[in-house]
Specification:
Layout: E1 5-10, H1 14-27, E2 31-36, H2 39-45, E3 52-55, H3 66-74, E4 80-84, H4 89-97, E5 102-105, H5 110-121, H6 140-149, H7 154-164, H8 169-176, H9 180-194, H10 199-206
Parallel strand pairs: 1-2, 1-3, 3-4, 4-5
Helix pairs in contact: 7-9, 7-10, 8-9
């Protein structure tokens, strides 16, 4: 490949992130690879000029699929490939439903990962060969929830994720460096856009973003 690409590797595991960054940088011609270790760092680097994001679902600052949905909502032109140690078919299916253009298990060889990157950069999709994607139907509730989330502003999205983590308004205000009144306004807007009437209902609804981990999962 002779084009120039800007690719972000977003993963909180430094060894895996470094290995993937090096592999892409040396084997994808013209690739400028940036790194992000948490969602806030990724947000600072994002723009519509990015050619590809390689995203770990379990980064700090994200709750399950929230990071993926955030990127697809606010940067719809930027393709996102999920790279995860969770290889459950249900997780792969939902990642694709929520807008990923590929899903690469961390157990894949580096050669397979590079092949997958090449496929996606050329406009294709990539999932494990043994996954029957043709019959996938998006769950109606997932589809509706994704549409509702797309109406949230970036700041409202951050507040919603913090609500799911159990933070109080005062704590959210501190984390975002805003006033409690601003947080309350965001919470009110979130409840309205999600069509619910309490924080508890919003948190329960956002539980659809969570991922159940297999007991014997060795890699996050």
């Amino acid at each position: 490949m002779s084009n120039n690409y800007t690719i972000i590797v977003a993963d909180d595991h430094p060894l895996f992130r470094a290995a993937l960054t090096q592999a892409i940088g040396t084997q994808i011609e013209g690739a400028d690879v940036l790194e992000a270790e948490h969602l806030q760092h990724l947000e600072r680097q994002m723009s519509n000029e990015i050619d590809l994001v390689m995203l770990d679902l379990h980064m700090p600052g994200a709750n399950g699929f929230s990071g993926l949905i955030y990127l697809r909502t606010h940067y719809p032109s930027v393709p996102v490939v999920v790279v995860s140690g969770n290889e459950q078919a249900s997780v792969i299916h939902r990642a694709m439903h929520f807008g990923a253009v590929g899903f690469i298990p961390k157990s894949s060889s580096m050669a397979d990962i590079i092949d997958a990157v090449g496929v996606v950069l050329n406009g294709g999709q990539w999932v494990p060969a043994d996954l029957p994607v043709a019959d996938l139907q998006m769950d109606a509730q997932d589809s509706q929830f994704a549409d509702q989330l797309s109406s949230l502003t970036p700041q409202q999205f951050k507040v919603m994720v913090m609500l799911t983590e159990g933070l109080l308004n005062k704590q959210i205000a501190y984390e975002l460096s805003v006033s409690e009144a601003t947080v309350k306004a965001h919470v009110t807007a979130i409840l309205r856009k999600l069509g619910v009437y309490s924080r508890t209902q919003a948190v329960i609804m956002a539980g659809r973003l969570r991922i159940e981990h297999p007991q014997d999962e060795a890699v996050k």
